[in-house]
Design goal:
Chain B is mostly helical and 488 residues long. Helix content of chain B is 72%, strand content 1%. Chain B has helices at 12-40, 54-86, 94-120, 133-156, 164-183, 208-243, 250-266, 279-291, 293-306, 312-316, 318-341, 343-349, 354-383, 390-423, 435-440, 443-473; strands at residues 186-188, 202-204. A two-stranded antiparallel sheet of chain B has the order 1-2. Classes of the chains: A mainly alpha (222), B mainly alpha (488), C mainly alpha (72).
């Protein structure tokens, strides 16, 4: 039997595939049977927060910051309650990270304020003198891509049933309406709390700087 | 090719991929040295404005060395080794030959798209799977073409038995195909939102913990099927061929193959120890990681024993040096990995610099050494010229070896130091160090690591120069060398 | 199925799968060495495939499908 397998490339390949796929079938597939269950009271990200998550991805904060507090006293003392599976139910993709060159951010919204973030993103050394994090000044002038974030909200609502209200609907008109009634007012609040006039002015002009969206996202991490 | 003369192996596609491996090696590792230096000297973050920060460059580094350097190396060696062990020339089938050229063209497009999109920050954000869906689709096409050529060649083969290297290449093809498709399952947003937003944007099919599970099933096994399996394919061919010694035990190589195939896939969940994935799965990840030592060492020891009675070649032939050290580093990192996968060790090691340290003794010492020695072995055969300089190769070996050692020792110390400082408490149970203390303390190690990386990069430049000179200025060879590669 | 049942099924499948594969694997080891001892097979000769790999090298075992149309 074995010798036959070794000389029949097709069945050999099938054999290899079965062997390597077996682990996947058992480890991965059953998890799709049950949907990720959100913890009680977990709300999906607002469009502004989704745009902030895109900034988080774009400038790749995940390279240095984790979002996973492990169940050790040393970690819960430092960052807060350990992470629960249900807290990530709306995270597509997950952003746990694999390296902590900087501290964990899973509950950063609990202990940092928008104006702290504003100072920190502009010049990290101004708040943490020994920081090796680079400044992200371009986030103060780049405009966040709200439309793509909105498209993402529509997609996850339609495809995965993420509980967004009826306002989140396909098409330009629905987006414009959401922008005026929800996204910009939310951004303005954040911009004001960041205590920088240039950011407030930009938002008032209808353009949300990347850093405002990012801080909206970081504020959600609690 | 030749109409009347005897048939020859067709190396045109091999040469193309050899060059892309050399170029992407230089690009990827240069970025690597830059980002290593940025951690030691943060002011280096501002060389390229928005595009030059550590965070933006890090995925560029990983993706260029994986999809550029390593995958080029895999294709180059496969098209060389595959033809030879099957005893069939690509020139015998115009169809397969044309497919390889098409594949190379698409590969260049994908590589360019990869560099541009990641540079701009367009990313799916899952590690080593950052490419967005249009590029993912292209990668799938490239991979399928590879499969067609592979099984096409196998169909035409003269030798009935598939040599062990071919087993490993087949496994590479299947493994990556399966993992890549599953992990990159994503929903393009433009199709569901009435045409809103960026056309290339997508969301992952999986959420939260599920996504993490799939991602590390991929993350771990991509290492298996890109950094281990095809590299073993290479060493099973190049070491015996270069030394003129048949594999010590062919049976052991078969057993190691099946062992590796089965066990490797189970070990993926060790990336998620202490996280929110089910407990029994974490434990299984740990256990299988330890069992994985057996097949890994089976291959490595088999390679070392192949040199039995021929150890004099180690001093005489720098290529043998590279390959023997590569299998030694393979043993080191396959021992280190399971140690890190033990839950209590992982509690300290996870999230620290020990992890990049572990990755790099594998990739620098094992993967890159093997690919470079493979390319060096092929050079005299595909260019029909003698290797340009033996002494250059010798010095490259020593410079790079020192580089690797500096790299992983500094990262071991850095990782364990930081891991211990994070958890240090005083007599009242309060944390002793603020986070920034644990960063500042790493500065010397980051500096040493950057120096190690720079040494390694220097070696890569020496290697590139050597290949280039071999192709253009090496002494012409009348006859293809049988075993040992001739070098001046 | 409830998630508990799935979880159980998965543990069963895992144990059975690992068991079956282990048995096959050990049988394979025995098979390899026994067939060589009996003189039925010589696995070690395949090691030469890497060494004699010219197009005109002697072929260890011809691919039967090609015997007619491809001759050296």
């Amino acid at each position: 039997m074995f010798h036959w397998l070794e000389k029949n490339p097709f069945f050999f390949a099938v054999g290899v595939f079965v062997v390597i796929a077996y682990a996947g079938v058992i480890e991965i597939l059953p998890n799709f049977a049950e949907k990720a269950r959100p913890v009680k009271g977990l709300k999906p990200y607002t469009v502004l927060q989704l745009a902030g998550k895109e900034v988080y991805k774009k400038d790749n904060c995940i390279a240095c910051h984790s979002q996973l507090i492990r169940p050790f006293k040393s970690e819960t003392d430092r960052y807060g309650h350990y992470s629960l599976s249900g807290e990530y139910a709306y995270d597509r993709p997950f952003l746990w990270g694999s390296k902590r060159t900087g501290p964990d951010l899973h509950r950063v919204g609990n202990y940092r304020t928008p104006d702290w973030h504003a100072n920190h993103m502009w010049n990290p050394k101004s708040v943490v003198p020994d920081s090796i994090m680079p400044a992200y000044k371009h986030q103060f002038t780049n405009v966040a891509d709200l439309e793509t974030a909105y498209a993402e909200a529509v997609t996850v609502k339609k495809v995965f049933g993420t509980p967004y209200g009826p306002d989140i609907a396909p098409g330009k008109a629905a987006y414009e309406k959401e922008l005026k009634t929800k996204i910009l007012p939310e951004a303005l609040k954040i911009a004001k709390r960041m205590k920088r006039d240039d950011l407030v002015k930009m938002v008032e002009a209808g353009k949300v700087p990347e850093v405002v969206a990012l801080v909206a996202y970081l504020e959600k991490l609690k | 090719m030749q109409s009347n003369a005897t048939l020859e192996y067709d190396y045109s596609i091999v040469k193309l991929y050899m060059w892309t491996a050399v170029i992407f090696g230089i690009v990827g590792m240069t970025i690597g040295v830059l980002i290593a230096s940025q951690l030691a000297f943060p002011s280096l973050n501002y060389l390229l404005g928005e595009y030059g920060t550590f965070s933006r460059l890090r995925p560029l580094h990983t993706n260029v060395v994986i999809y550029g350097f390593t995958v080029s190396g895999i294709f180059a060696t496969f098209y060389y080794v595959g033809q030879r062990v099957l005893k069939v020339s690509l020139a015998e089938s115009k169809f397969l030959q044309a497919l390889t050229k098409l594949q190379f063209g698409l590969y260049l497009i994908a590589a360019t798209g990869l560099v541009i999109s990641l540079g701009m920050g367009i990313t799916a954000s899952k590690e080593y799977a950052q490419m967005e869906w249009p590029l993912d689709a292209l990668i799938v096409v490239i991979w399928v073409i590879w499969g067609i050529v592979m099984f096409g060649l196998i169909g035409l083969r003269r030798e009935k038995t598939l040599y062990i290297s071919m087993w490993y290449y087949i496994a590479t093809f299947l493994g990556v195909a399966m993992l890549y498709l599953f992990n990159n399952a994503e929903v393009p947003t433009i199709f569901f939102s009435g045409g809103l937003g960026a056309w290339y944007h997508s969301v992952s099919m999986y959420a939260g913990t599920n996504d993490a599970l799939v991602q590390w099933w991929w993350g771990h096994n991509a290492v298996a099927f890109v950094f281990t399996v095809p590299i073993i394919a290479m060493i099973y061919y190049y070491l015996p061929k270069e030394s003129g010694q048949a594999v010590y035990s062919y049976k052991l190589s078969l057993l190691s193959f099946w062992g590796l195939m089965f066990i490797y896939l189970w070990a993926g969940s060790h990336h998620l120890l202490w996280s929110t994935v089910p407990d029994w799965m974490q434990t299984m990840g740990s256990v299988f990681s330890v069992v994985l030592i057996l097949p890994s060492w089976g291959s490595a020891i088999n390679m070392l024993l192949t040199m039995k009675g021929e150890w004099n070649q180690l001093t005489e032939n720098p290529l043998i040096k590279f390959m023997v050290l590569a299998s030694t580093f393979y043993m080191l990192s396959t021992l280190e990995g399971p140690i890190q996968a033990v839950k209590s060790v992982n509690a300290i090691a996870h999230f620290t610099d020990w992890i990049p340290g572990h990755v790099h003794d594998g990739v620098l010492g094992w993967v890159a050494f093997m690919i470079m020695s493979g390319i060096m072995h092929m050079s005299p055969r595909v260019f029909k010229r003698e290797i340009y300089s033996k002494s250059l190769l010798e010095s490259q070996f020593w410079i790079q070896t020192i580089g690797v050692v500096l790299y992983f020792t500094s990262m071991w110390i850095a990782g364990i130091t930081q891991g211990m400082m994070w958890r240090a408490v005083d007599e009242y149970g309060n944390l002793v160090y603020s986070f920034i203390d644990t960063v500042s303390v790493l500065h010397p190690y980051y500096t040493i690591r950057a120096v190690g990386g720079l040494l390694y990069l220097t070696g890569v430049f020496m290697f590139a120069f050597n290949v280039f000179k071999t192709a253009t200025a090496g002494r012409r060879l009348e006859q293809e060398p049988r075993y040992r590669s001739p070098m001046a | 199925m409830t998630s508990v049942e799935i979880e159980q099924l998965r543990v069963y499948l895992y144990v059975i799968g690992a068991g079956v594969v282990t048995v096959i694997f050990y049988y394979y080891i025995i098979y390899l060495y026994r067939s060589e001892k009996k003189g039925e097979k010589d696995y070690e000769k395949y090691g030469k495939l890497a060494l004699d790999d010219e197009l005109d090298s002697e072929i260890l075992e011809k691919n039967p499908k090609l015997e007619n149309d491809k001759k050296e």
